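Question:
When you can, review this sequence-structure pair and walk me through the tokens.
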Amino acid sequence: MTILNDDQNRADQDVTGLLIKWRQGDKAALDALIPLVYRELRGVAGARLRGERAECSLQTTALVHETYLRLVDLNRLTLENRTHFFAIAARLMRQILVDQARRSQAEKRGGGLTMVTLEAASPVSAPNIVDVLALDQALEELASLDERLCRVVELKFFAGLTIDEAAEALDVSRATVERDWAAAKAWLYDRMTPPSS
């Protein structure tokens, strides 16, 4: 187990070092960074796409590649470390999924909304299928009430970060993220669950 932790620490240091070089203008650093985080990005993207309808054309690889292209377009973005990188990637994936859902909705004039699984919304129930556009609208509303709660959802749901990683990205305690995650899930559940007849 120590070897895995040492390997993870080295990988985190490599990612952080490449992020610093990229921030300093070394464009080749991003190209070296992507292979280090590609598998993790694919895992996150795959998790986000698992609950989609079959007619959705966006695939895991396409989501990862689109995320990469948007990262490249962000000139000298200040990314501090691996956790911050995945926080930004999460926000970009959210934007990509929302853009895809909007295109799909526009093409079908209201039909064929892109769906994704909102994992761990309720630990005792099966995963809920959530409309990406409705989730995005709910997150925008949540952000207007409490920006950090929205960030916690992005980090946990879109980036797949752990509680500890989310705490590091937000520079708050683990307990704060646990409370925020519970509050955000409850708020989203209430906001997105249709009223019973």
Summary: Strands lie at 115-118, 128-131. The mean pLDDT is 75. Helices lie at 2-23, 27-49, 60-73, 82-108, 132-145, 147-158, 163-170, 174-192. The chain has one domain: 2-192.
